[in-house]
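We store chain and fold; thus.
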Amino acid sequence: QVRMVESGGGLVQAGGSLRLSCAASGRTFRSASMAWFRQAPGKEREFVAAINWSDGSTYYADSVKGRFTISRDNTKNTVYLQMNSLKPEDTAVYYCAVDSWERLSPHRTAYDYWGQGTQVTVSS
């Protein structure tokens, strides 16, 4: 099955930037779309951004539009999340996910495989 490994999390000040990476691998890997979700303590996991693997089309949560950018590198089977103008409310564990359909779904139930998560902390 598919294995997902996130990296790039850390501690930054408000207004700063981070870039997260998610490398996907596995003999059964055949991604149609990939996405980023995040989860803060005491809150449900929420959608951040998704990208169509074939044509690169994207979809963002309203809370991150204009600040975050999702992209992919087909040669590396890797998806990125560039996060700019970070706010304290962006603090969460960020997860990468794979969907077999090209639906760019904001619902976590649409995704088949998940990474272990990477912590992002934004100080005020």
